Structures are given as structure tokens and as C-alpha cells.
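Below: protein 1.
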Amino acid sequence: GARGEENSDGSRSGTGGVSYEDSKDCILEPLSLPENPGGTTTLEGSPSVPCIFCEEHFPVAEQDKLLKHMIIEHKIVIADVKLVADFQRYILYWRKRFTEQPVTDFCSVIRINSTAPFEEQDNYFLLCDVLPEDRVLREELQKQRLKEILEQQQQERNDNNFHGICMFCSEEFLGNRSVLLNHMAREHAFNIGLPDNIVNCNEFLCTLQKKLDNLQCLYCEKTFRDKNTLKDHMRKKQHRKINPKNREYDRFYVINYLELGKSWEEVQLEDDRELLDHQEDDWSDWEEHPVSAVCLFCEKQAETIEKLYVHMEDAHEFDLLKIKSELGLNFYQQVKLVNFIRRQIHQCRCYGCHVKFKSKADLRTHMEEAKHISLLPERKTWDQPEYYFPTYENDTLLCTLSDSESDLTAQEQNGTVTVISEDTSKLHALKQSSILNQLLLHECLKN
């Protein structure tokens, strides 16, 4: 066994925190795991965990109380308890081992208040994975937990008797869990990940539904006064997603069980780093990703134009595609309309009633409440040459407007003059006949 003795005056030692205050912060953090993992074990039906040294029992969900009990009553500290995959099995293993050999055969002895009088000194025992037996135990428990999780995941993947209700439209779904998850992602832009990455799906959905029933936003986790207010908030703020920093959800993603003591963020970082290390200087398949397009009415940015259109329709009730279709707008008319709206919003002026406001926030509130966003002025107001020029030089939205064959047809119907570039392949002839010569001559005469 590993033996050792360290003295300190209450400060943190090299092997871990030893004071009671330190232990509260560093050791007593519980690791949440699925309550009903796949597979059967001999521990099923055991709702509590015993103390390593005495007959005290504590509920599995209250392991922090057991840890405090063992520190106060028995002066034993378990290091990095949050990295123990199965706390119940871990405790039962060491409970048996401590009946076979003295605790000092396994634990480092840490003396606190070593400079104080002898009667004020005290010894604590540190159980950690520096001990090879403890390390092997933790690794085995991790492997067993991963095996159970993968069995549970496979069972859910093959289960065609799933029954669930959409949290947003109350539509019922029968069959495989993927049908409901894909529906929420496609129809409500609520994506919690690929079905094959999720485990204990029913519990996950129940957890989310309970939060919504308690009028709590899933992303920012604020509570609202009624269901409609919550619904509008999540739609307008684009909060139809879960909070990635909430560790409560970790137990529902298989990636969190892959490696001992590593969260999905650490695993992902390692994968990214490995990808960068093995990246070759081959740019042949490189593709440029477009810059995010910005909403016409707020600061929302979207990776694709489709997502931006959905946002403007959901958050501002402005359907650019519908307006284009109903008014028969060609590409250049769409450009002028976008630039017109951009300029009006930039000047904090409502184009529906021509009232000017102190800020864009006040303007947006007014236009949403008065329903003036969809109240476009007559075509002659915005279909002007001045709006050919972008209000913002880097307006990516202008680059994504449709320029389809139907636009060309509409262009011909509306009698718009088509601009054809000069043939730059015949430079000598261009120098002699280009319209630019006349323009330059005219400028010289003026000057």
C-alpha cells in the first residue's frame, strides 16, 4: 500500500486540500449520472450508500452529506470525487478493503496544525488515485459505466415504441425518438443534438418539459410570469436552445462518458488540436465561409440567409421572400428595398408612419407594437436610383439576394434596362470606342 505523512498548518498541501473549508470547495462536488443506466447490476434496489467506517447510510442523491459525515466523524477525505464514475460501487469497494487492512495502508496521513500544541493537532486520511489500487478502481468503474451507457443508448436507438409530445406545438409522436427530435429541430429550430449522441432521452425530455412548465427559459434560465411571455421571449431572443454551461445536461450526452475525468469540452478541444496537428498544407479543398448576414431590424446575425429569413419572419413578422413574390421584385429592386429599409432604420425613422425616434430600440418597439414593420410605403418611395448604393458597405444580405431566371423575366416585364459590361478582351478597340472617352472629354471641358 502507499503510505505517507505530510505536515501542514492548515494550508493546502501538495497532494490536495486538507482543511475543512478547502474540502467543501474542492472535494464535495457531486457528479450527476443517469439514475437508470442500462444493464443489470447487483446494486439495483439499493437506494442508499453506507459510510466506509460505520453503519450510517445516505441517499445516493445526497452523496455530499455522506462526504461531510466522513470528513467530520472519521477524518477521511476522498480526492477528486467528481471523477468517480460510480460513487456507490466505489464506497462499497473501499468499505470492504478497510475491513481487511488498516486505513494507513492505503491513505496518506495529513497532520494539520502541526505547529500547535499536540492536543490541538489532528490527522486526516487522504484517499486518492496516487494509490495504484484506487486508480485501477476508478478506471474500471469508468469502463463499466461507459458499457452501461452504450447499452442504454443502443436500446433507445432500436426502440420503436417511443411516445413523446412536442414541447412547442403539442403534436404527438410515436415510433423512434429521432422523429420527435428531428421535428423540433426542423419545425421549431430547437436542436439538442443528433439522436445518436443522446442517452436517457425520456429523462432528458422530461427535464426540459419540467423547466418549461415552471415558466423557465431553457437558455438564459430566467423565469417568466406566464406561458405566452416565455414563448415570445424564447422566439424573439432566439433562446430555443439549452444552456451549454449547465452541467445538469452533461449526463444526457454520451461524449461525457468517454474518458475518465474529462468533460465534452475537453474532449472536443483535444479532437480539434489533433486535427490541427495533422493538417497538411493542402488548400485544394478549401472553401470560404460567407460572413454572417445581419437582420434588417435588430443586431441578430445568422450563418445562412435561410436562417436570417426565418428570424425576421418569427421575430419581426417581416417576410422578405413573400414581399418579393407579391410585388414581383427583380434583383435590383430587392437591393433598393433593402438599402431603403437599412437607411430608415439607421436614421431611427419608421417608414410606416415617418415618425423619428431617439434610438433604434425605441423605433423597433414602436414598429413591432404598431405593426408598422410590414407597412411598406408605396413603391415610388423606395424604388429610386439613390438606393442602388448600399447603406452599409459590408452588407452581406445584399450578396445573398436571389437572382433567378424568374427575376430576369420580371425585369423584362418591368422594362428595366439591362446593364451589359464592355468587352475587356479587345482592349485596343475599347480605348477607341469606350463611352468613358466621352465622359473624360466632358470633364476636361468643364474644368
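Below: protein 2.
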Amino acid sequence: MSPPLLKLGAVLSTMAMISNWMSQTLPSLVGLNTTRITTSDTLTQISPKEGWQVYSSAQDPDGRCICTVVAPEQNLCSRDAKSRQLRQLLEKVQNMSQSIEVLNLRTQRDFQYVLKMETQMKGLKAKFRQIEDDRKTLMTKHFQELKEKMDELLPLIPVLEQYKTDAKLITQFKEEIRNLSTVLTGIQEEIGAYDYEELHQRVVNLETRLRDCMKKLTCGKLMKITGPITVKISGTRFGAWMTDPLASEKNNRVWYMDSYTNNKIVREYKSMADFVSGAESRTYNLPFKWAGTNHVVYNGSLYFNKYQSNIIIKYSFDTGRVLAQRSLEYAGFHNVYPYTWGGFSDIDLMADEIGLWAVYATNQNAGNIVISQLDQDTLEVLKSWSTGYPKRSAGESFMICGTLYVTNSHLTGAKVYYSYSTKTSTYEYTDIPFHNQYFHISMLDYNARDRALYAWNNGHQVLFNVTLFHIIKTEDDT
């Protein structure tokens, strides 16, 4: 084949490959094979984790802003994520548009060459026919040379027709890219086009302002309980499990104490995943048996009620020694003033954002609940509050931000029925339902780090999420 024909063959081969690539790859690059381009608010699906969440907002009687804020898990809000993804899509389309423009210029140049060759071939064909009619007058040798050249060119005629078709296809692709760019640009203008660096700076500034705002949040008031999430099924009907609310973010140890009496074994797991899989890391043999299920781990130590006494024990996991013990004066014990389910649950130890607490009942307070704030080192009672709620009528209780929340039952249909604020020394009756999925709760404790309730529900270890109502402090607040 002559050099011009070799060049033409290479061009045609390249055109065929490009045509095939354009038909298969272009739709997936711009999302036409999976996503319908539209100018609605839902250009792409954004993960809920990318969004800011505000549970509620209101004003108090003094006109102060009251709101509930939850920070996102990632650094982009959904609107900005849409803009960034749209910007990336536009860049891809623009790059393809430039490539098609270069291809189009080459196509037009080669197309002129093809048209010229086609004209020459048609003229050669006409001459050949004329010569063939009068071939008797020509020398046989010259005739044979012309015939061979014509035979060589004849197969190119259908190829040239295909080349012209491919050239038209390139023109159509170019037009479709232009239309798609126009649509995407319109969408970008509608939702707002921002440079990524500008977006990132806006998010950083917003996060800084949010952190400053959250520093002003007072302790929250319980508004809602959702769940539960079943973490594991193990043990007897009664028991306790917990994490340390003062532990660092990297420290996620879990402690497990099965049954409400006649036991001294505490099992430790390095993480929640290990707890679920049963990969125990360490076992502690306490010097005393515990009573009830209302223990708490706080700042690396276990606080529990010594069996058949009103003595509180502080046990260090690091040293394996008892660091302190103290009698809780007048506190009933050994099923004198338990929760409704019994189980020697007379003394309930708990922790919240403020510190360490003991909830119990005394004869002096007619069997009603007493709340005492404890010194975490010496176990000395710092201050006590006497409520009017009978301890034996309570299903369980827990502290959040210095307020005691009491449930009315440990069985199905239980709800948070009563609360007592140690800040104002006032109480109120509430109606906050929660789902007692396994029908018998023998432990319910709040963890301030996780903002969750840990529960032992009839041999199931479960978690409840809580929604808190926060008040933003102003400079006028004391």
C-alpha cells in the first residue's frame, strides 16, 4: 500500500478506536449511564454524616436563644459537597470538550485529505472506464498497471463512507458536550459555585464558631430517649456493663459484671468490638462481693456497694487495690429500699458531667430517694438532697447534668416519670417513654462521654441514645 494509503489507514483506525471509546466511556464519565442530570436540589446523594444537625431551637422567657446542636462527623455540609462534586464534574466535561476540539481539528484536516482523494478516485474510475472501452488501442502492459492500481483503491470506497459517518459522530459528540456543559453550568449557578479552597475555609470558620458556641452550652435537659441498640446477649437476667466516661478517646475499655450478688469477678475488654466478640483482655478478682447492679467506673476506678452493707468501695484497676471505702450514713441496704425489681439494688452509684453520685433511701427520709454528691477520692458526702419520690416505686434512675431522672417501672411500658434538679432543688413529673425491648431492666446508667444510656435488659446489653436540650449561656449569665 502506498504511503498516503498507510496514513489514511492509521487515521481510520484511530477514528474507530476514538468512536468506540466515546460511545462507551463518555456516558459513565458524566454520569449519563446512572444519574439523570437535573436542576433539582438532589443532584447527588450526600451522606447524612456530611450534614449539620439541629434538634430544636426556641427562646426562654428572657429572650435567650435555646438550641440543640450536634456537630457533623465530616468537614463538609451537603450543599458545599454538592458544589464540589459538581465542580469536579464540570472539570471532567471541560477536559473532554478540549480533547474533542483537538480531535475535531485533526478530523477536519484529514477529512479534507479524504475528500480530495475521493475526488481523485472518482476521476480515476471514470478515466479507467473510458480507457477500458478503448483498451484495444493501448498497450497491454500499461492497461495491467492501471487495473492493479484501481483494484487496490476499490476497497477504500466503503471505508471512506464509514469515515464520513465517524466524522459526523464526532460532530454530534461535540454538540452533546456543549449542551451538557450548558446544563451543568446552569445547575452550578443555581446551587452556588464556590472554589474548593473557599469552601474549605468556610467550613473551618463554621466549625470554629460552632466550637466556641458549644463551649457556652450549659448542661442539657433530657428530652428524648431512642433505641435501644442491642450490643450483645450474654450472662444472667441481671448484671452491669460500662465504660469510663473520663477515659481518653483512644481508651474504649469495657467492664462486665454478671449477676447482682455472690460474685467478685470483673471482666475487662479492650474495646467494644472485643466485648462483642468475647475477646476478654483481663479479669479482676475483687476483695469483696458486690451488691446489686448499680456500679460505676469513673476515672480508672470501680465504685461498688459492698455486699450486705451500706459501705461504698473504690477499687483501682491499675493497682488492683482498694483505694477508699466509706459507710453511707443511714442508707438502707440488702433489699430494704431497692428498686422495683429487688436484687439488693438499694444503693445506686452513678456519674455525670458534674461528678460522682450515690442514690439511695433512708428511714429519716421515709424511704424516699436521697441524692448525695461524693468526693471521688475519699467518698465523703459533699452535699445531699432529699426528694419525695419513694425508692421502692422507682424502676431505675440515672443522673444527667446534676438532674436525677427516675423511671416508674423496670418492666414493659416503663418511662422516665420523675426528675429532680440538684441545681434548683426542685422536681417535676415527666413523660419520656423508651422502648423496654426485652421486658426487664436491671441496670440503667448514663455515660457523659458517649451521651448514651447503658442498660442490662434481661440478659441483653443494650444502648439508648439521648437527646438533650441545651441553653446557650450569655455574658449576662452568672
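The chain has two domains: 3-33+80-126+147-217, 221-469.
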